Every structure is written in C-alpha cells, then in structure tokens.
Amino acid sequence: MVEENKIFFTDYQISRAYRAHKLLHTCTGLSLHCRYQATDQDEIYIDLARKVYGTDVAFLKGKTFHQSTAPVVNEFIEIPRELIASQYNIDLCIDTMFLNALALLTTNA
Q1: How far are the Cα atoms of 5, 15, 35, 64 from residue 45, in angstroms, in the given order?
Q2: H-type helices in the chain, by residue range?
Q3: Mean of pLDDT values over 68-78
Q4: For the segment 93-107, what is each residue's pLDDT rounded down to a tens digit?
Q5: What pLDDT digit, counting tens, does each position of 29-53 carry?
Q6: 100 lies in a domain?
Q7: Does the residue 102 lie in any domain?
Q8: The domain containing residue 31 runs over which residues?
C-alpha cells in the first residue's frame, strides 16, 4: 500500500515524508497537535507522511482501549442426595439430528 501511495509524490517529498514519519514514530506518546509543535518539521511534511505511510499504528494502539467484560460468576448448586440416588442407574444417550439445516439434539433415557 505504501508503494502505491509513493507513486503520486516526488523523490524529495518522499524523503521529507520519511524523515517526518520517523520523527513521528519516535514521538508516539504525544498528541498530533503536540507533535506539530515539538518537531521542526513543517505541518506539510507531517501531513505528507500520513498520506504516504498512513496513520501510525503504535499511536492508534496507544489511544484505543479494551473494555473489560463482566466477570464470570460460578453458581454451583448442591444436588440433594435423594435426587442423585433415584437417578443413579439411568443412562442418557444424546444424538444430533439435522432438520432443514437446523441442528437438534435428541435424547433417550
């Protein structure tokens, strides 16, 4: 993709964009406005670097965050002994049956 973008620019613009890209990569923690102020590069070359090389992935990863999921709660229920004793000798057979491309479970106890 970068090679395709380089076709539209001169060698001088690409060399300046490369320098600006390397400089932006070293200033990853700064916002784009602070990058403009912290560098001696013109805004033109910084914008040119973004057009040629795309957005800085490390900068984007630093700005995005992962939302935490809800914790899994294990709720174990104690099964009464009388229920276990009455169902002790039962064999349960489970099979898969497809009906109109819909998977169904069939059981036989």
Answers
A1: 15, 10, 12, 25
A2: 2-6, 11-26, 32-38, 43-53, 57-63, 81-86
A3: 83
A4: 899 999 998 999 999
A5: 555 555 555 555 566 777 777 777 7
A6: no
A7: no
A8: 2-63
